[in-house]
Amino acid sequence: MFQLCDENLDERTLAEGALELNLAINPDTEIHWAKHKLQQMCQEAEQVLVHEPNGELRLERLIQLFYVEWGYCGDVNTYFNSENAFIEHVLKEKKGIPVTLGAVFLYLCQYMGFPVSAINFPTQLVLQIEWPNKKTQYFNPFDGQYLSQHLMTAWLIGYGGPLATIQPSHLEKVDNSTLLGRLLAVIKTACIREKNFSFALKCSDLALTMVPDDPFEIRDRGLIYQQLHCNDAAKNDLEYFIEQCPNDPSVLLMKEQVQLLLEQHPTVLH
After folding, report:
1. Would you state the pLDDT for residue 226?
2. What mean pLDDT do residues 145-165 have?
3. Distance (Å, whole) CA 186 – CA 85
4. From start to end of the chain, where are the E strands?
5. Measured between alpha carbons, how far is 76 from 265 in angstroms, rounded to an integer?
6. Where in the chain is the domain with CATH 3.10.620?
7. Does the domain formed by 7-171 have CATH 3.10.620?
8. CA–CA dist 145, 4 (Å, integer)
9. DSSP state of 59
């Protein structure tokens, strides 16, 4: 079973880890096709870049190839669609969200040996480019554009309030487990919005492999169980949350949900 706490995750690329996560949620994920497609893209990129004279120009050519000639772009119309969080869908439709587009673009960069990595920026996946003896650059995988500190600060203000500023921790490299945890949260939220509660339940169970006793994740799982009419399991999870977090603002609502469950006939979870 895929686990976010797997120590071997950082031995794989982010795209490979995301594919394994996708497969754990949706068994119909065409993981072998996706891996073959990624390799095919690497080989094509290598042929296109072979005549570029230096690393920086090679990276600029790759950006042109990926975002213009191949046509990968951010999905601005259906951004929150859960399919955008699945690498296979991104490869087929050539659109996605920052973390999935970034995972694919980063896969190409790592194959080509470019000094590109993901950083711990709070608002979305941001890529960092570190050429020797050059100022560090930041890159938005959603639209293929370089980022200024002014824009990154504006993002933070929108996310954390008017006093938010870029902290050194925001620019530190981030491991795959953390990024995949963020991706998992995105998928769970999208699946709940789309009423795909079976996939949402898989997401919640995967999150709990990292922190098994997280009361907030257990609360969310309880609400998902409730939608799946697994009343006993839902009641147990919600009561656990109420016991662990008695002062949380959502406790009153959770108590109301437990009362509703007690008034319904229990179902057996197979």
Report:
1. 96
2. 95
3. 7
4. 73-74, 95-96, 116-119, 126-129, 137-140, 145-147
5. 43
6. 7-171
7. yes
8. 30
9. H
Q: What is the pLDDT of residue 5?
A: 72
> What pLDDT sits at residue 263?
86
Half-sphere exposure of 249 (CA within 13 A, CB side): 0
- The position carrying tokens 């072998």 is 32
Q: Give the span between the Cα atoms of 228 and 188, in whole angstroms.
A: 15
C-alpha span between 144 and 147 (Å, rounded)? 10
pLDDT band at 245 (very low <50, low <70, confident <90, very high): very high
- The strand pairing partners of 129, in sequence order, are 116, 137
What pLDDT, on a 0 to 100 scale, did the predictor assign at position 69?
98
E runs forming strands in 75-171: 95-96, 116-119, 126-129, 137-140, 145-147
Confidence of residue 156 (pLDDT cuts 50, 70, 90): very high
Q: What's the confidence (pLDDT) of residue 124? A: 96
Token match 């995301």: residue? 18
Q: Is the Cβ–Cβ distance between 90 and 75 less than 8 Å?
A: no
Q: Residue 135 is encoded by which pair of tokens?
A: 């100022």
Q: Residues 63, 129: contact at Cβ < 8 Å?
A: no
